[in-house]
Specification:
The protein has 325 residues and is α/β, with parallel strands linked by helices. The chain contains 11 helices and 12 strands. A 7-stranded parallel beta sheet has the order 8-7-6-9-10-11-12, with helices on both faces. The protein has a 5-stranded parallel beta sheet with strand order 2-1-3-4-5, with no helix packed on it. The longest helix is centred in the middle third of the chain and has 20 residues, at 102-121. The protein starts with a strand and ends in a 12-residue tail after the last helix.
Length: 325
């Protein structure tokens, strides 16, 4: 393969950018202005029209206007803004490959979800509330509310790279782990289910972890009807995309006491307005879409892109392929 023109607006620190420049010396590298964060779309940049490879958060409209573009590598795990009929058509015709950075974010997101689950099971939030307020010593009541994960049922709704890694992290706790996935396959220590089995799983689950992507079938996936199927006292966690949760239905379920708690890293909209009801919902704990973040994120993002670039140069299958027929 000859020299490629690689365009990038990925949000990188100097160390990561230097590594990218050094590793791409055989190619022409165009460094465009990055968006403010990894979740935002970059500004339109006409230099993108010169590229065979795009890395970052390119403007979707400019992607379809470039007939020479052969591969788009997104710097995010999410890809809703790129799931368009025009881009799907290019992919299906065999003229374009689209990949994402799920590998980069699977580990931190899985660890974040595990932290949520353990914080709830060990009642860390309740202990902190005592410290923050009356500083009493309710050890008897607090000990009685703590749980072990052993033999509890944990449902992972959306079993992709994050779910698979979370299942690995949960293995030492000896919980029963269920994974909701369209395509079943045999996996160690995980019972994969499809949507027809979801009502039964929700009735049995002590913890429901929503890792669903945002696509045409997932907005409001967890709404009133499904929250009503939850086992009384179950806990709900959301680290995928905020639009997959009906937030009013969640607030109602919390207010009614049906759920023991909700832990959210994603909301709709983001940022969540300061006066939004979820901030005040009982037993609702929110982190600001920080689950994927980690100190060496830019370096790992470049590492993942370069690993795929080597595959692309050698005509090998890429990691994280999207929009496939």
């Amino acid at each position: 393969m000859g020299q490629l023109t690689i365009w990038t607006n990925a949000l990188l620190n100097e160390r990561a950018a230097s590594h990218l420049r050094e590793a791409c010396q055989a190619h022409r590298l165009i460094l465009a202005s990055p968006p403010p964060d990894v979740l935002s779309k970059g500004a339109p940049d006409l230099a993108l029209q010169e590229a065979q490879v795009a890395f970052g958060q390119p403007d979707p409209d400019l992607l379809t206007a470039n007939p020479d573009l052969r591969w788009v590598h997104l710097s995010s795990a999410g890809y809703a803004r790129y799931d368009t009929a025009a881009l799907r058509s290019r992919v299906e015709e065999g003229g374009l490959l689209v990949t994402n950075s799920s590998w980069v974010f699977a580990e931190p997101c899985a660890q974040h979800a595990l932290a949520f689950i353990l914080a709830h099971s060990r009642q860390l939030h309740a202990a902190y509330e005592v410290q923050r307020t009356d500083r009493s010593w309710p050890h008897v009541a607090l000990r009685a509310r703590c749980h072990l994960l052993e033999n509890q049922v944990i449902l992972l709704a959306g079993f992709g790279s994050i779910g698979a890694r979370l299942a690995e992290l949960l293995a030492p706790f000896h919980a029963r782990v269920l994974g909701l996935r369209r395509r079943k396959q045999s996996l160690p220590q995980v019972e994969l289910i499809d949507e027809t089995q979801l009502p039964e799983a929700l009735a049995a689950a002590d913890h429901v972890v929503n890792i669903l992507p945002e696509n045409g079938s997932t907005p409001g996936f967890f709404g009133a009807a499904r929250f009503n199927l939850f086992k009384p006292g179950a806990c709900y966690y959301s680290i995928g995309r905020g639009a997959t949760t009906d937030q009013q239905a969640l607030a109602d379920a919390l207010s009614a006491g049906r759920l023991a708690g909700a832990y959210l890293d994603v909301t709709d909209p983001e940022p969540l307005p300061p006066d939004h009801p979820l901030w005040f919902a009982p037993r609702c704990y929110i982190t600001p879409h920080s689950s994927g973040g980690h100190a060496n994120e830019p370096e790992r993002m470049v590492e993942h892109f370069l690993r795929n670039l080597r595959r692309f140069e050698q005509g090998q299958p890429l990691e994280g392929l999207l929009l496939q027929p």
